[in-house]
Design goal:
The chain has about 325 residues and is α/β, with parallel strands linked by helices. The chain has eleven helices and nine strands.
Length: about 325
């Protein structure tokens, strides 16, 4: 294994193992590798796993020799790719880092110091800014699907439920105990699942808000257009719900989303106007969710039924959330 500057010799104790999965990431690599070279104040090793890139990514990783490189001929998914090195990590902590993340020279040291100072925290991340607008992605306190069915009680939660997976640090021993990422997730929501499993094992999730990263959001680990990206997002959420909600609740959630999407698309001109203020109502996004709902119905062997069959329990929760938003002038949930 080729070592980079600042990394201890083979066999020595390390603070951090850094894992990066790439797919057609050549445009991102110069800044990413420069950012890794600039890290100070911590000993670390790096692992790159390429998911069948068709551009210059693979050649660049091998040529730069900044860590161990594993090359796959196909895209095996985000979590599965990270898991390939699960038995090779030697750091006390493991940092999962997307190739399209930009960061300063103290990121590794500050995240390591944060976990050192908070022994009750298993998983943590920095402050994340996303896209061209650098919109903040704060730690979430609710899980996907809780707009329909609650996984935990209350609407005023203090504990962090999950954090963005583009830059996520975890204690290696806990990662190994949890078995890494769930391989049933291809892309999206695998970090949400990991955080939930860690919390259910008695650990806390933290945020090191003294350090910030910029997630460009323009390097994805799959091959497809914008609509397929949205479908992949909702497939990840659907997988999360299948794993963590009861079967009867999942079936109600699918049916509720199916009819809600159909109703919204029936008002598409109004929907386009509303989407200017609330991007989540964009018709393209609603269609993608509807497509995933249809597939979920097939998977669960469900019939669409009629609009009159909308689950009363979910409708009542929606009304409760609406009332909360009207009183407090903000939506109570922060999930998808």
């Amino acid at each position: 294994m080729t070592r980079i500057a600042g990394t201890d010799p083979e066999g020595s104790a390390l603070d951090l193992s850094v894992s990066i999965v790439t797919f057609d990431s050549a445009p991102c690599l110069p800044d990413l590798l420069d950012g890794i070279r600039a890290q100070t104040g911590v000993t670390f090793e790096t692992f790159f796993v390429d998911n069948g890139s068709r551009d210059a990514t693979r050649a660049s990783l091998v040529r730069q020799a900044l860590g161990a490189v594993t090359l796959h001929d196909e895209n095996i998914g985000f979590g599965r790719a990270h898991n390939r090195n699960l038995g090779r990590f030697r750091g006390r902590y493991v940092l999962f880092l997307n190739p399209d993340v930009r960061f300063g020279p103290t990121l590794f040291a500050q995240l390591t110091a944060f976990l050192d100072a908070h022994p009750d925290v298993a998983i943590a991340g920095p402050r994340v800014r996303e896209g061209v607008a650098r919109r903040e992605f704060p730690p979430r306190r609710f899980y996907p699907g809780e707009g329909m069915v609650a996984l935990e009680p209350g609407l005023r939660r203090r504990e962090i439920a999950w954090i963005q997976g583009c830059c996520l640090i975890i204690r290696r021993q806990i990662l190994e105990t949890l078995g890494g990422f769930d391989p049933d997730f291809f892309l999206y929501a695998e970090e949400t699942d990991l955080c939930l499993r860690a919390r259910r094992a008695g650990h806390r999730i933290g945020c090191c808000d003294t350090v910030e990263v910029h997630h460009l959001q323009d390097q994805l680990l799959w091959d497809g257009d914008a609509t397929e990206r949205l479908r992949q997002l909702f497939r990840g959420v659907a997988t999360f719900c299948d794993k963590h909600y009861g079967t009867s609740d999942v079936r109600r959630m699918i049916r509720f989303q199916y009819w809600t999407c159909r109703l919204l698309l029936g008002l598409e001109p109004t929907l386009r106007i509303a989407a200017r203020r609330w991007p989540r109502l964009a018709p393209q996004r609603v269609r993608a969710r509807l497509d995933v709902c249809r597939n979920a119905m097939t998977r669960h062997r469900m019939q669409p039924a009629s609009f009159a069959d909308l689950p009363l329990r979910i409708m009542l929760r929606q009304l409760r959330l609406l009332a909360y938003a009207m009183v407090h002038w903000k939506p109570p949930l922060d999930d998808y």
